[in-house]
């Protein structure tokens, strides 16, 4: 099954339409089955979703109600190579339920990108932990026609040996996204993500599209080229039916926000994610743990996009909604700014309905 979309908003409506198509159920392309997390509707074949403009990554669907603050910060947390709960807990306290030890995540993608284990270090004479992103960027600079640029996430030690919930080594969190390939085509960086099992609503659309489009842009900027297409291949694409209102199009589809925001001069962030890779990596390591939001950053994206959003989040946590909206005034990415404003307005209204002043 192949779905082509301009951006995540268009893809969202197309994917919802697939699951609701009665013809696909008749021929058993879509079926209902059980899973360890409850009943699901599943596509009985691999699904490829292609985003033609991956930098248009912000989902505006008001029913899905993505938390843009969390998705942006988590993507930066990944690029920083982190696996700790503490930093993410400030943006999503529910994430700790996926940890085995209460401190780290077994399947943290970014940690594996930047701290990949090398088994036989004695024969290879290399550091036992390798930064895959740096290796791949150097490789593609030297070999722009390469077909060997593969980023690995799933491995035997951390995943395969921990998949059985009856085993003492069982892990709550094993990688859903397995590997990524990068190809330079016509001077643009294309990316393909391979996924074993993907929740369409909560995983692929809204969350993973931000994580991996950030990864794609990071590599592209580091190579000094533009972002191309982003392909997501999911071996098992599904939706959980118990907490998704029976998955009806009337609940989930919003054609009026399909791609309108990006077509009407909103556009993706005009600020590239990375200006200088070495400086970005250095500052990002500090940014993830930052608490001083008056600080300025040399990397433009961190300074005029990420920092205002993170500061607005902190003000939201204090219930200072006017201050949070004022902080967003300084965010130079209008797509992120709009999504964050709308998300805050809903939370402020809920807070006031409960007696907040």
Summarize this entry quickly.
This protein has helices spanning about 10-20, 20-25, 70-80, 85-90, 110-115, 120-125, 130-140, 200-225, 250, 260-265, 275-285, 300-315, 320-330, 335-355, and strands spanning about 1-5, 30-35, 40-45, 45-50, 115, 130, 150, 175-185, 190-195, 200, 225-235, 235-240.
List the helices and strands and how they pair.
Blueprint: E1 2-5, H1 8-20, H2 22-26, E2 30-33, E3 40-43, E4 47-51, H3 68-79, H4 85-89, H5 109-114, E5 116-117, H6 121-124, E6 129-130, H7 132-142, E7 150-152, E8 177-185, E9 188-195, E10 198-199, H8 200-223, E11 226-234, E12 237-240, H9 249-252, H10 260-263, H11 277-287, H12 300-317, H13 321-328, H14 334-353
Parallel strand pairs: 1-4, 9-11, 10-12
Antiparallel strand pairs: 2-3, 3-12, 4-11, 5-6, 7-8, 8-9
Helix pairs in contact: 1-8, 3-8, 12-13, 13-14
Helix content: 40-55%
The number of distinct helices, counting runs of at least 4 residues, comes to: 14
The name of the CATH architecture of the largest domain is 2-Layer Sandwich
Largest sheet, in brief, is:
6 strands, mixed
Tally the beta strands: 12
What is the radius of gyration computed over CA atoms, rounded to a whole number of angstroms?
A: 20 Å
Instruction: Report the top-level CATH class of the largest domain.
Output: Alpha Beta
Shape: globular
Percent strand: 15-25%
CATH topology of the largest domain: Thymidylate Synthase, Chain A
> What is the helix/strand order?
EHHEEEHHHEHEHEEEEHEEHHHHHH
- Cα distance, first to last residue? 50 Å
Mean pLDDT: 93
What number of structural domains do the residues give? 2
Poorly predicted spans: none
CATH level-4 homologous superfamily of the largest domain: Thymidylate synthase/dCMP hydroxymethylase domain
What structural category characterises the helix and strand content? alpha/beta
Strand order of the largest sheet: 1-4-11-9-8-7
């Amino acid at each position: 099954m192949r779905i082509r979309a301009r951006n995540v908003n268009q893809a969202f409506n197309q994917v919802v339409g697939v699951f609701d198509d009665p013809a696909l159920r008749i021929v058993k392309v879509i079926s209902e089955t059980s899973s360890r997390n409850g009943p699901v509707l599943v596509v009985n074949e691999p699904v490829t979703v292609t985003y033609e403009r991956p930098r248009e990554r912000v989902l505006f669907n008001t029913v899905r109600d993505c938390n843009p603050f969390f998705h942006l910060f988590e993507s930066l947390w990944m690029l920083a190579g982190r696996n700790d709960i503490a930093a993410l807990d400030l943006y999503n306290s529910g994430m700790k339920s996926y940890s085995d030890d209460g401190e780290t995540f077994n399947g943290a993608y970014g940690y594996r990108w930047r701290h990949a284990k090398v088994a036989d270090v004695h024969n290879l004479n290399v550091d036992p932990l390798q930064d895959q992103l740096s290796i791949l960027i150097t490789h593609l600079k030297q070999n722009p026609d390469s077909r060997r640029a593969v980023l690995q996430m799933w491995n035997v030690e951390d995943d395969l040996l921990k998949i059985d919930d009856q085993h003492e080594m069982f892990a709550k969190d094993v990688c859903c996204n397995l590997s990524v390939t990068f190809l330079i085509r016509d001077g643009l960086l294309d990316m393909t993500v391979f996924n074993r099992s993907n929740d369409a609503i909560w995983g692929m659309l809204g969350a993973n599209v931000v994580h991996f489009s950030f990864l794609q842009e990071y590599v592209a900027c580091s190579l000094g080229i533009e972002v191309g297409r982003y392909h997501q291949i999911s071996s098992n694409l599904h939706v959980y039916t118990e907490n998704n209102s029976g998955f009806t199009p009337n609940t989930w589809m919003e054609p009026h926000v399909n791609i309108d925001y990006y077509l009407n001069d909103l556009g993706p962030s005009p600020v590239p994610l990375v200006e200088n890779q070495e400086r970005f990596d250095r500052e990002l390591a500090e940014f993830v743990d930052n608490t001083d939001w008056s600080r300025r950053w040399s990397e433009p994206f961190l300074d005029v996009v990420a920092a205002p959003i993170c500061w607005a989040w902190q003000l939201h946590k204090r219930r200072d909604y006017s201050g949070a909206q004022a902080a967003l005034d300084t965010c130079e990415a209008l797509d992120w700014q709009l999504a964050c404003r709308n998300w805050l307005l809903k939370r402020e209204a809920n807070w006031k309905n409960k007696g907040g002043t």
